[in-house]
Write a structure and sequence with these properties.
Strand order of the largest sheet: 1-2-6-5
Number of helices: 5
Largest sheet: 4 strands, mixed
Distance between the termini: 28 Å
Length: 278
């Protein structure tokens, strides 16, 4: 485990308010925030770029707000991948990589022969997307209630449970959310999902995440009332002794304009763990 501490990343680039990126260039992880909580957000989404499966998922939501959040997040994913890959967003085809635990095709979502990896997480109208040259995982969560923390904390590492128990009750939701998003980011990065278990690795509940061998794990700045984290696998071109290598305050700022932004597992708030997914 690493003992080097780093401050959280600044807020990701806001989708719908920043220029779209150019084709993917090997470099820092790029993170994007999609906020569809407004009644008429710039990232409202356009279902025409979604495939049949995604459109079916969108129709399955009973609440219009949930449908809008889903369409906004998945439209943003397709349009950003379209820019990075230099292709029509509607032509992007996803597949599942083999599970690292059993080999079945339910691991990390990916695009075949693409030069980048990606991860998507959304929670109550806020979505976080990350793109990297190495396997990457992100998670964003709305802060849970103290009651939810009490119900779900039993799934954490024993040291994390002890840390939560030592905190005053009002401080536990934020601490739990930090821990939970770190774990989800790691599970999504590896593609192992719940097969590995939430108690397997210690990531901590404090203001700095504990190190995970072979991975860079950092908290990501998120809107008020939310917590977020990102985990990316260390590669041969990354400095293993510096978890912040490749990250910078401008890492999420696109450098090229290709066109205007489109108008656009269980969660702790459901008191149940969820698998990695798109």
């Amino acid at each position: 485990m690493s003992s080097v501490h780093h401050e959280p990343l600044p807020l990701p680039a806001v989708y719908g308010e920043r220029a779209m990126p150019g084709t993917w260039q090997h470099g820092p992880v790029q993170t994007w925030l999609v906020d569809s909580r407004l009644s008429d957000p710039p990232a409202a989404g356009d279902h025409r770029v979604l495939d049949a499966y995604e459109r079916g998922r969108a129709r399955s939501f009973a609440r219009e707000t949930d449908r809008r959040h889903y369409v906004a997040a998945h439209t943003a994913l397709r349009r950003l991948l379209g820019c990075y890959l230099g292709t029509d967003p509607a032509a992007v085809q996803f597949h599942r990589e083999p599970c690292p635990c059993c080999g079945a095709p339910h691991g990390r979502p990916a695009v075949r022969e693409a030069p980048l990896h990606f991860s998507l997480s959304h929670s109550d109208g806020v979505a976080l997307l990350a793109f990297a040259s190495h396997p990457v995982g992100v998670d964003v969560e709305k802060l849970p209630s103290a009651d939810t923390v009490g119900l779900v904390a039993e799934w954490l590492h024993e040291r994390e449970r002890a840390e939560l128990a030592a905190l005053p009750v009002p401080e536990r939701p934020a601490a739990f959310a930090r821990c939970w998003t770190r774990k989800e980011a790691c599970l999504k990065g590896t593609g192992a999902g719940l097969a590995q278990g939430l108690s397997h690795d210690y990531v901590g509940t404090g203001t700095h995440p504990a190190g995970i061998v072979g991975w860079t794990l950092l908290d990501v700045s998120a809107p008020p009332g939310y917590a977020a984290a990102c985990s990316v696998r260390d590669g041969p071109d990354r400095q293993a002794d510096d978890p912040a290598a490749g990250w910078s305050p401008t890492a999420s700022v696109p450098t090229a304009v290709t066109g205007p932004a489109a108008p656009e597992e269980p969660s702790p708030r459901r008191a149940s763990p969820r698998p990695a997914g798109r």
